[in-house]
Design goal:
heterodimer, A: 197 residues, mainly alpha, B: 470 residues, two-stranded antiparallel ribbon, 77% helix
């Protein structure tokens, strides 16, 4: 089951890279976060780790539901451009994405040997990190870049739960707090830009 | 204790919601209150647990906290006259204070953290609050740079977290959840079995921190951000944010030193040398104050890192203190110097009348000469001791010839920077036309505060304290 969710996590991120509409991108981000939350829940149940179960629930509530909802509201409120064409053309992306996946698999190979459990997940989380960077790079608009940043945070979260069987609860909560703070700052930046106009 | 340390920032945050303009005057003086708990921390036996095992005061972070708090006070003083130098709406002004307070809270947590996770959370909080401070300036370039800072800053901070996760994964088999604890990690560093995993984590964390400090290959991003924002933001970056970043580097490298010293030294040596090489030429081409000081800041942070990994803890900390006082002082002076035209270097130090004006000119001249390590600047002594530490280390490793060559190369690069600063100082003092300019009392007071702090840095008591940390 965990393998299934991790596959879907990667698949949603790859699909997000080809998206040309903003709302659809929010949806893929939401699904990506949902897979991450479910993954944390399953791993938490498997390891009998209550902290990871709580983290999984918070991930689903904040990242899969609240943040996409807030971002959608912001888009309507500030009239943001919803047509987002990636700078990298689709046929190049089709070549680039597998190259990144294979490259990161070999890049992470020495690290994965040292991690006893979930070693393949570490390789997938590192490749997700690169794919999130690609998402940030391939768009000129700010909104997809924000989603790229949020996906990068998801990849790090995946790395945290797969490489270390979960980070301490306090740290996880702190990261969530910072994420919410990021959304507040992004909201303020958009608001100020509108004031200027 | 933690409440009193956070109190000035909390007062600032609460008062930023009040609409009365006189509140700002109160804020400048309430910020001095942070010195009381810090002085108390200096007198306590260390390590002193401030918040369980999460926030622990030791000699190193108490010193860094004091330095950054003095900078915070200086910036608060100069903020009182921000409206007189730049156009800023009362609403933006209040929001600036609000995010400055959030920034300060984040950095206090980062500096005092004995936990890698809390260190990261504080740093991220500070990074995010800075984004809005940049945006307070209503220009197109400030808007672009705020987003730029948000994106690049997020990448840098994500790299730091990535590295922390790998370090945590490498130490978890021996320490369990306590593997986040800096002191425990240091004590058990030699027991880490997957040293490669730790080193990869350390390298990634360091690269994230280096990007935040503007090291190679991101030399210009910080300079551009500082140029686009109001001058107190640049002062906060160089005096407080960089303090929190460098203390993280100190903590992580102490552990890396135990794991594999040679790898740590070679990695930092090559990285910093390359950074100084690039930065010296960028400084040579700099055409405005902010970029000049910002790039010079990168050079200083590179030197501090280099001295630290060479075993020169005392010169690294002395250099750090001098940098933390000199850079904000110069950035705050820039607010006054640029009031008569942004890129006007010629004659920038001419036209200041009266006692206040003369003190201002004198202090700016002293700071400019101190930053290029003219004796008796603390930077002169720190560089002297720093290069000695590098030679001592090379003697032990029997690489003395290679180290002498590296130091000579560094001195050539530093002389390029020296030349540029002298040339700029001469243009400021002797070229251009003289026109009457004004400087305000609080600004001079802030500069005097930095000057006194610089003098205190080279007092025997301070030197003994810093040597004690080593």
């Amino acid at each position: 089951m965990i393998d299934f969710f991790i596959g879907l996590f990667l698949a949603t991120l790859i699909t997000a890279l080809f998206t040309t509409r903003l709302y659809r991108l929010f949806l893929w981000y939401s699904l990506n976060s949902l897979m991450l939350g479910l993954l944390a829940l399953f791993m938490g149940a498997k390891l009998d780790d209550n902290a990871m179960l709580i983290t999984g629930v918070i991930t689903i509530l904040i990242k899969a539901i609240a943040i996409p909802f807030i971002l959608k509201n912001m888009t309507q409120k500030f009239n943001l451009v919803r047509q987002i064409r990636p700078n990298i053309q689709v046929h190049y992306s089709i070549i680039l994405i597998p190259v990144i996946l294979v490259f990161t698999y070999y890049l992470a190979d020495p690290i994965t040997h040292m991690i006893g459990t979930n070693s393949n997940y570490v390789a997938i989380s590192i490749s997700s990190l690169f794919l999130s960077l690609l998402l940030m790079m391939e768009h000129k608009n700010v909104s997809p870049k924000i989603i790229g940043f949020l996906c990068m945070e998801n990849s790090l979260f995946l790395l945290g739960i797969s490489a270390t069987d979960g980070m301490p609860m306090l740290v996880e909560l702190g990261i969530f707090f910072d994420l919410l703070m990021a959304i507040v700052v992004i909201n303020l930046l958009f608001k100020q830009e509108r004031t200027k106009i | 204790m933690i409440f009193f340390l956070l109190l000035p920032a909390i007062i600032m945050f609460v008062m930023s919601f009040m609409r009365k303009s006189k509140v700002n005057n109160l804020l400048a003086f309430s910020s001095f209150a942070i010195l009381i708990p810090i002085v108390q921390l200096f007198m306590l036996d260390k390590p002193y647990p401030i918040l369980g095992d999460y926030l622990v005061a030791d000699n190193l972070n108490t010193y860094v906290l004091l330095v950054s708090s003095i900078v915070g006070i200086g910036v608060t003083l100069s903020l009182m006259t921000l409206k007189k130098h730049v156009e800023i709406s009362p609403k933006s002004y209040r929001k600036f204070y609000r995010f400055f307070a959030t920034f300060w809270i984040g950095l206090i947590f980062s500096i005092l953290a004995n936990n890698m996770g809390i260190y990261w959370i504080g740093l991220e909080l500070a990074t995010l609050s800075t984004v809005y401070m940049i945006k307070t300036n209503f220009t197109k370039s400030a808007s672009r740079e705020a987003w730029n800072y948000m994106i690049v800053g997020a990448i840098a901070i994500s790299l730091v977290l990535f590295g922390i996760i790998l370090i945590y994964a490498s130490a978890k088999p021996i320490l369990g959840e306590e593997a986040m604890n800096f002191n425990l990690l240091l004590a058990h560093a030699k027991e880490i079995q997957s040293s490669f995993l730790f080193e990869i984590g350390f390298a990634i964390t360091s690269i994230g921190m280096f990007i935040k400090m503007g090291f190679f290959p991101m030399n210009l991003w910080l300079a551009n951000v500082e140029r686009a924002s109001y001058y107190p933001v640049a002062a906060l970056f160089s005096g407080i944010l960089e303090s929190a970043v460098i203390i993280g580097f100190f903590r992580f490298s102490e552990i890396a030193k135990e794991v594999n010293y040679n790898h740590l030294f070679i990695f930092t040596f090559i990285y910093t040398l390359f950074t100084i090489f690039i930065v010296s030429f960028l400084i040579f081409r700099a055409k405005d104050f902010i970029r000049l000081f910002s790039l010079s800041g990168i050079e200083h942070m590179a030197l501090i890192s280099l001295f630290w990994v060479s075993g020169g803890v005392f010169p690294a900390l002395l250099h750090f203190g001098a940098h933390a006082f000199l850079k904000p002082a110069l950035f705050l002076s820039t607010g006054v110097l640029e009031s008569n035209g942004k890129y006007k270097i010629d004659g920038a130090l001419r036209g200041y009348k009266g006692k206040r004006g003369k003190i201002f000119v004198f202090l700016v001249s002293i700071f400019l000469l101190a930053i290029i390590s003219m004796p008796p600047s603390p930077m002169f002594f720190s560089e002297l001791y720093g290069f000695s530490a590098m030679l001592e280390m090379a003697k032990v490793d029997k690489h003395i010839l290679a180290m002498i060559m590296a130091i000579l190369f560094l001195l050539i690069l530093l002389s390029v920077i020296f030349y540029k600063f002298i040339s700029i100082y001469q243009s400021m003092k002797y070229d251009g036309e003289e026109s009457e300019k004004e400087v305000y009392a609080t600004e001079v007071f802030a500069l005097i505060l930095f000057a006194i702090s610089l003098v205190v840095l080279i007092l025997p008591t301070t030197i003994n304290y810093l040597k004690g940390i080593a």
